[in-house]
Amino acid sequence: MEFRDLENFVLVMWSGDLDEDRLLVHFCKNGSWMQPLRCRGAVTLDKNWSKVYCSDPERGYQISVFGLNEEESRWDKLEELQHRETDTAEAMLQLKRGKKDRMLLATTTYSFVVWDFYNLIPRGNHIKEMKKCKEDAEKKDEEEEKTDVVSEKDLRQQGIVLKLPHTIRNISTKMTQSNSFMVSNNNTYAVAGVRKNLYVWSLETTKLIKILDAHFGRIVQLEPLTIGAWNNVITSSIDRTVKIWNIDNIFEQVHKIDRQELPIDSISLARDKQLAVTVTRSCWGLWDTSTGRLLAQLADAPLGAIVTHAVVTPTGDNVVTAESGNVVIWDIAEQQVVFKEEQKGVKQVLLLEDGSKFITISMQVTTEHIDNLAVAIIVARTLPDGEKIYSVEFELRGTGYKAAVISADEHHIVAPGVDKSSRDCLHVFHARTGARLHRIPIKNSGIKDMQSIVALPHKPHWVGVVGNDKAGILDIKTKRHVRFVPRWNGACTRDGKIGLCAPSRGGLDLIELKRGTSLQQLISRAAEGVFSIITMFSSTDQYVFYYHSGRKTLRVFRTVDGRAVAEYRAPAEVTGVASAHGGKAVALASQDGCLTILNIVDPHE
Known about the structure:
It is elongated and about 100 Å long. The strands form 12 sheets. Strands 1, 2, 3, 4, 5, 6, 7 and 8 form an 8-stranded antiparallel beta sheet that branches. With 605 residues, the protein is mainly beta. Helix 1 (124-131) packs antiparallel against helix 2 (137-156). The longest helix is centred in the first third of the chain and has 20 residues, at 137-156.
């Protein structure tokens, strides 16, 4: 429906059946109704509402122009436009009038079509001939006249067809609506937004001359901004951004930033090489962190793989992944699978003994288990051969898996679970043999609501049980409670002296881990609402990283004096933060599929 006022309006009717694209146009002018006009696929009117441009049901999807005959209250066919005889079968998805009613812009399944009714678009032959030397002036004039005639017929009735690349097609987003495109200020280029990309054609040659990676989500709308000297196009996307592009700069050198198609779920960095491994749902990515290049995107199954975990060894030689119910070991140099074995429902992958062994913890909820309990299986294997060393089971709750930890001396695996009377406990296993050593009730730590557990780096037998507002430290050898640490979130320095307090409501403090007293307030507590927060120490403990999902900023503080060193606003939601290059850099994985490596530039250093 489109209204000028209550006496003048247009109604476009449709059956509502997606396989049926016939339309009926009802038009009311000064309170009197015209005879309905039948058309199909797409329809548009000129500025004065005196002409209708639509796909003619009698001519397939070719466009006809109908003029308003007020005396007889009907629409009369004025002319028939062509856009190539062969294209009658190509569905017409959208029609729009260009600025000042000069052009008609059509979107079809595989292309875009422009009709220029003023016929001012320069044609290739025309320009070339004008540039030739003046020797045969008279002949040239005759030839130019001919080309003018051809060009006139060419453009007023024969549209300029701008083809999309072979695998790309336009889709109908709503009846009579599809992907929009626009013509630049001087009628040189046409720009369209399809999927995530901007496509640029030359109207003179009809060739596709540029494809720009515009957004990381589908482009929803594209509008021209060509007023006065402005020669811009505005795009909005499902990635929640609006971008304004200057068409005059469209041929500047493009520096493409590598990214994966889907959001990155997690990130793992090699210690000895400048390599990173990222996980997206369909594959895992191998990156060179010194150049920012995505070296490879790999999955064992070429189609339909579901990758949930990927961990790179410290040496950077192998990657262990969990993919589609299998544990897979990859050789990085060859980019080949060297081992694969079925293990369904993998929840965690942990490396042991400098990457020479690894354990996978998988969980399966079965109907036999009552009270929402499940059994988890720990399987230890060698790297890179994948030989099974042992496999051991423990019970846990079926919902909300809590990650297991390996003690600082790598002698024990500590996994949260439940005991025989289904009370929360910690299962302690010998890391070399898999022998079960203890079940320690959580209540020994004095924490009722366990959120996570953490191995303390300076005391191999100590494990921190992190609750909502405090943490309790347990000794896994004596099974005794050591002490409470108020407000601690589980992150601490390698000497076990300093921890972090970062409530989801805002604020960040360095706390002393003996008594939980504040050493330094890094961010003051302003009530900003509850957001997800990622915070940690760098690998050398020199810096504290703090990412806030509401502000989308990563802030870096010096541990020594609590001074802010840097603040970086990420272009998309960050999903993972890691310390890189021996604590001199920070790696960010984000929802737009990008891996960003930032060097920490500290004036203090």
